[in-house]
Amino acid sequence: MARVAIVGVGAIGGALAGLLQTAGRHEITLCTRRPLNALIVHTPVGDVQVNAQGVTDPAHAGAVDWVIVATKTYDAEGAAAWFPALCATGAPVAIVQNGVEHRERFAPYLSTGQLLPVVIDVPTERQADGSVRVRGATLMKVEDIQLGRDFAALFSGATAKMMLVDDFTTAAWWKLCINSVGALNALALKPAGILREEAMSRVAMEMVAECVAVGRAEGAHLEDNLPEQVMAMYHAQPADSVNSLLADRLAGRQMESDARNGAIVRKGEKHGIATPMNRMTIALLQAV
Q1: How high is the pLDDT of residue 288?
Q2: Phi, psi for 21 (deg, rounded to 5)
Q3: Can you say whether the dihedral through the CA atoms of 60, 38, 70, 249 is positive or negative?
Q4: In whole angstroms, what is the distance from residue 17 CA to residue 124 CA?
Q5: Average pLDDT by consecutive 10-residue portion of the chain (288 residues)?
Q6: Which of 46, 51, 214, 249 has minimal CB crowding within 10 Å?
Q7: Is 175 one of the catalytic residues?
């Protein structure tokens, strides 16, 4: 059994809490801004009632064995406020967030040896009643190091698929190629079905092509036909699927566009690679 704290219990954090609950042997702490009376996770195989301690004040948190950060990328400072108490005995921190700057984001707060970047792929949404709906299977990728193996062991017995990868840079940029396209949904205020239109598909593939070029400069091994692969994935999604950027814009919340398309632009500038489609997209998203 491990003591595991989840900082940020939105769609991703809730899905992870449900998986830890089904593993059946952990002491779970949910760290949130507001009290969370109950957490129910609706999955394709049934509902999961998460039995956890809720904490809203870092001063009242106790030391744990693992911390999982599932906040939005722009809230690194808020998440880090929990570290002094939760990591008092040296607990490692798994960063389950978007983008490719996991360690950079939290380097000011902890040693890099405590930080484990995680790439997650799970179709999940936070519902109006506070519950979490998981539409399909969960896949997580972590580095094949001892910290990654220990993190994967937390989910032994749960339905999540864990992949230990030698090349995490490629895994992170591959996921960013997929996520970059979601900005179009947020701009159009329409779910995944809009990407089936030819004009939108072409724009999306140009955005992915820029991400591929920048990712390769960063050391990622990405296929030439990745833009076509990404569009095939989006075309296979239910037409009403809503990604997190669109969900945040519809709800009037801040969007994670900087960690997605913004990262492509920043890294592109570092390598002298033009990223006009992503640059325009980030400018429009910041404007709205």
Answers
A1: 86
A2: -65, -45
A3: negative
A4: 12
A5: 96 96 94 92 95 96 98 96 98 97 96 96 89 94 98 95 97 96 96 94 97 98 97 91 90 94 98 98 93
A6: 46
A7: yes
In our burial notation (b when 16+ CB lie closer than 10 A, e otherwise), range 88-115 reads: eeebbbbbbbbbbbbeebbeebbeeebb
Q: How far apart are CA 21 and CA 27, in angstroms?
A: 9
Can you name the residues that pair with 66 across neighbouring β-strands?
4
Short-list 190, 174, 173, CA closest to 182: 190
Strand ranges for the chain from DSSP E:
3-7, 27-31, 40-43, 46-49, 52-55, 66-69, 93-96, 115-121, 124-126, 132-134, 139-143, 161-165
Residue 201: per-residue pLDDT: 96
C-beta separation of 64 from 86 below 8 A: yes
Backbone angles phi, psi at 102, to 5 degrees: -55, -55
DSSP character string of 254-275: PP-HIIIIIHHHHHHHHHT---
Question: Are residues 227 and 212 in contact, defined by beta-carbon separation less than 8 angstroms?
Answer: yes
CB of 105 within 8 A of CB of 71? no
- DSSP labels for 32-74? -SS-----EEEETTEEEE--EEEE--GGG----SEEEE-S-GG
User: How far lies 249's CA from each of 56, 184, 255, in Å?
Assistant: 25, 12, 7
Instruction: Of 191, 195, 227, give the one whose Cα is nearest residue 209.
Output: 227
Active-site position among 72, 175, 267, 270 = 175
Phi, psi (rounded to 5 degrees) for 283: -65, -40
- Supply the DSSP symbol for 239: T
Q: How many CB atoms lie within 10 A of CB 73?
A: 21
d(CA 162, CA 139): 6
